[in-house]
Every structure is written in C-alpha cells, then in structure tokens.
Design a protein that fits this description.
alpha+beta, single chain
Length: about 260
Amino acid sequence: MLQAFHKHDPPPHRVKPIPLPIIRHIAATAHASADAALQATADMIILAFFFLLRPGEYTNSTVDAQPFRFCDVALFVGNSKLDPASTTPTALLGATFVTLEFTTQKNGVRGEVIGLGRSGDPICCPVLAAARRLRHLQQHSAPPTTPLASYCSRPPTFAAVAPADVTASLRLASNLLGRQYGFTPNDVSARSLRAAGATALLCADVDPNIIQLLGRWRSDEMLRYLHLQAEPLMKNFAPRMLRGGNYRLHPNHSVPSL
C-alpha cells in the first residue's frame, strides 16, 4: 500500500516547469558536440517535454522504470510508415510524424498510440528527436527491445540516459539561464519536463481536457503540474477581470426594492 502511495501522480516536491529556451540551449549545445551521451540526453529531454513523459518512461530509471523501447516508436512520412531496419539514416530524418505505443507504461492503455507532428524547429522537435534516436540505435544494430534512451559510445556496449543525467543537464543550463526565467537550479529535476510540457500547452490556450488526455492523467491531479507563475498565462487576467467584474445580481426576497 505504501509503495502504491509513492507512485501516485503528485510529486513529493512540486518542481517548476522548464521554459523552452532552456531546452533549446541544452539541445543546441549537445548537438554541436560529438558526445553520444549528451546527444541522447538532449533528445530524451525533447521527447519528455513534447510527450509529457514521466522519468520512468524516458530514462533508465531504477524506480517505476517502464521506458519506451526502440520497437515502441514509429516514424511516418505522410501516411507511410518507415521501417527502421530498411530505411536509410537520412530517410529517417525526413519523417513528418512520430508515434509512441504504450505497453507497460504507468497510466497508459496497453496498445494505445499517441503521436505528434513536426514542431518546425530544426533541433527541438519530437519527430526529429525520435528519428535521431532510431538512427543511432539502427547504426549500432540495437535489438528492438533496446530502451529508446540508450546510446553506444563504446561499441558494442550500450548505456542509457538516467534521471540523474537529465537533472544534471537541466540544472547546468538553469545555472546559466534560469535566473532570467524566474527559477534556480534547485527548482528543477527530471520530473520538471512533464510540468514544462503541460504548462506550455496551457499557455498556448490548449483545452485542459486535451492536456489531461495527452498527459494520461486520470484525475484532476494534473492541476498540480500546472503553474500560475507562467507570465503569458496570467498577464491578461487583470484587464479581463475589469471587463467581467461589472455585473448585477438578480435580487432575492431579502433585498429591498429600489
């Protein structure tokens, strides 16, 4: 019973969401390098942000680990599905849509598929991040059951991105840029990316019901991941309250007539 309580959606400490410029900085830095570990970490950060993933879904976590695997990812060009075994690495990067299939992930329906199209950014894009991961695994002959967060820096040995790697990357970038976005490195961890994706959707005026579906929340616990500190979300409320606060109540019998 206690173990079930610990796995409940609300995090024990409410982390702050990561603004997109921090993620862009991490992605640009990693992909300007030749470090396979940094590139894998950056790609999994991008996927976690766009798909609202839990650490156990996108890293090699020792707690509640049910990560997506090579075989759980599908890339498409239009309606045509690409076969990673026969598609060239260059062709993988031409994909226009990516899907993740849920198997044993928490709060996911087995066999359910969730997909996203391109973001329009040359690096910070869920389709391209997935394509880069599949390309890397394909080039190193990884088995289909290999976790998507795996990378091969010393062939033939594979390692995998851990939550600590993600947290370290986020905190390093936050140490450089976090102050201008209103938070410190200690405010963020690998769990921040789920909150970051949800907050970005809310700030983009996406219906909360859609956010709940995308994040696979089965209750209003989703609200614990959303932050009212996000400036685009709150900046227009005061003038809207001035417009909406000028109303008249229908009187009941206790209100004297004029």
